[in-house]
Amino acid sequence: MHPTCYLTLLLWLTFDSLVAQHQLFTIDGVLSAPYSSNLTGVGDRVVWLVTERGVRNIWTATFPDAKLRQLTQQRTDDGQDLNDLTLSPDGRWVAYVRGTGKNKEGVSPNPTSSPTSAEQAVYVVSTTGTAEPIRVGVGSHPVWSPEGKRLVYGNGGQLYLATISDKIHPAPTRLFTARGSQADYSFSPDGRRILFASYRGYHSLIGIYLLDNQQINWLAAGVDRDQFPVWSPDGRQVAFERVPGSRHGELENIQGGRPFAIWVADVATGQGREIWHSPGDDGGFAQYYPTAPLRWTRQNQLLFFSEHDGWMHVYKVAPTRANTPVDLMPGAFEVEETCLSADGRYLYYASNEADTDRRHLWRVNVETAHREQLTSGKGIDTDPVVVGQTLVYRDAAWNEPTGIAWRSMTNPKTTALFPAKWPNTFPKAALTEPQAITFAAADGLVVHGQLFLPPAGLPPAGLPPAGLLPTTTAPKQRPALLFFHGGPMRQMLLGWHYRGIYYANAYAMNQYLAQQGYVVLAVNYRAGIGYGRAFRRADKQGPRGASEYQDVLAAATFLQNHPAVDPKRLGLWGGSYGGYLTALGLARNSDLFACGVDLHGVHDWSWRGNMFSPGGDWGIGEAETKEALASSPNADLSRWRSPCLFIHGDDDRNVAFAETVDLVQKLRSQHVPTDVLILPDEVHGFLLHKSWLAVYGAMDRFLQYYLPVPRSLGTTPKK
Ligand SMILES: CSCC[C@H](NC=O)C(=O)N[C@@H](CO)C(=O)O
């Protein structure tokens, strides 16, 4: 062999060993970093939840000293979620919920299949960090009294009251028994009354329970759904949101809209008056998506979320009389989580203004509507909390999962608070920065995506690095994967996702797949958020015509035209709504898509509309059944040829496990190659870290088998 060839071969083998080092980039490693969520604050203190390899613990910090402390000492991946963190007004206690609510059969998730079952219960833990958590009682959504010594929480639709000290004595008591299911509750400023919404089927009422004489007074009772009540600062009035009550046969459509109004009622008389109503059916999402859809500020202004100008914004309106709301942040962008300063003068918020596929923090002066940007750059900054003169927030980047950062309001310098360092197992240096891309669907709609390219230098699959051997053209040789988020009211971003472990892990897996040599495209298809109301409420979406499928096809064309991609080796993957689009692609276009991985997807909208729940959460009625089936993967099974890995927890409360059982049986009967990974007693968003490792491990092996990117020349892992 010519000496040059020997040299080339030597260089290639050296390079291949370097590539092999990338195998140190493991699924376990990319999922090993701590993930911070549930950030909240009071006074000079914040608390948040840290989930690290499934181990969930509560941390706290005080400012301005930024002193950190771990408050709980959980040490195992026990599959029991922690949620609803809330600090007592004096900062001495954190109340939180361990476990997840019961399903229709009255059972809480038990992903470890523990023979002693599982519960959802309220706990408190001292912020001194010196004591064990104290179990308060079965329930959720704890709310503190103004003096910080009492907690109200919900259990089975009724409200309970606990007195909190170093021990729970006397035992919690049911506050009262009322018809319906009580929710949206809060103490009055004087701590002597409980405001709540009573949900009663077609309608809901706003009530006030007087602790002194155990009496319930109802406010402005009508035939509508009154919800999200808030106290005026003096406790003499209540504001709430009113949407029309149900009509016979009316079905919930979480992607639809409904008109809504802002009302104010007088506590003493119970009389109410409308302050404003939306010009159209702009309500629904603006109430259930934000954490605080309605607020009454100390400056005596009502703040509420609405999409009526085409984007999710916060508006202010005076509570005194009918008047026109003022948009606090006019412009073509969306507002997400918010925090109001203690004096009510500033609203802090996360937005994608001027950076569509990221999130940064802003604040707006409620009086003047003057706004200023507080964070910028390549971060994914969300969930602002203001403690004194310090802004604390959740912060991620393209190569860092969500942690906690802070800045002083008098100094723009940002400081990372948690974690102090990333685990050595976390392959930060080997991550690839996703690129923002857009493409047009067949109907002209512009769709955003994030493109993950294998790290520079990683040789194209199975071939020596370009440049070492004379090649006339860079042959298209990489397999590519399209990822679809769930929801669908979601948006994947140019960095680690902030919306729970579910999406943080999805982003991590796309990093892993790129590292393995796949070109990966995360597709922000229509019906998602971030791009305005019209995009989110795109016509004929899902069960009404699957208009999103145009975006699937356009994304495939984008990849097929990419110089690094082998157009005949495209794969699909996604969860839930993303699983639906994965299955739809394989059913309709096995000619385009070589294989797919469907995590707990919906496969028959007509079945979901009839059997999962009335309308299937998408308002699928009798008249929509035919269209719903036609919009489903199950309508095109005769065309399905490509292999698919199906993954589902059999205690899924969001997408019935039956969807996967049915589809796999049907595909098997027509000899389509199917693999399944079933997680007994797991739910929709897998609660155990070990479940995620199993899911992604199975996915990795499946993709390597059907869309091989040889880890080294000539080897293809066995399935
Ligand atoms: C396709 S209908 C149900 C989809 C499901 N929505 C609610 O549970 C879903 O996509 N869930 C998660 C993702 O798992 C979400 O992001 O809401």
Topology:
Blueprint lengths: L2 H20 L4 H4 L4 E8 L2 E8 L2 E8 L4 E4 L11 E6 L5 E6 L22 E6 L7 E5 L1 E5 L5 E6 L2 E6 L9 E2 L6 E7 L5 E7 L4 E7 L4 E5 L4 E8 L5 E8 L16 E6 L5 E6 L7 H4 L5 E3 L5 E5 L6 E5 L8 E2 L7 E6 L5 E6 L8 E6 L5 E3 L6 E8 L2 E8 L2 E9 L2 E8 L16 E6 L5 E7 L25 E7 L15 H16 L3 E6 L8 H4 L12 H12 L4 E11 L1 H12 L4 E7 L5 H8 L12 H6 L13 E6 L8 H12 L4 E6 L9 H18 L13
Parallel strand pairs: 35-36, 35-37, 37-38, 38-39, 39-40
Antiparallel strand pairs: 1-2, 2-3, 3-4, 5-6, 6-7, 7-8, 9-10, 10-11, 11-12, 13-14, 14-15, 15-16, 17-18, 18-19, 19-20, 21-22, 22-23, 23-24, 25-26, 26-27, 27-28, 29-30, 30-31, 31-32, 33-34, 34-36
Commentary on this structure:
GO terms for molecular function: dipeptidyl-peptidase activity; serine-type endopeptidase activity. Keywords: Acetylation, Hydrolase, Protease. This is Acyl-peptide hydrolase. This protein has an eight-stranded mixed β-sheet, sandwiched between helices. It has 719 residues and is of the alpha+beta class. Helices cover 16% and strands 35% of the residues. The two termini are 37 Å apart. Strand 3 and strand 4 form a beta hairpin. The relative contact order is 0.09. The structure holds ligand LTJ4LZQ7. The ligand CSCC[C@H](NC=O)C(=O)N[C@@H](CO)C(=O)O binds next to helix 7.
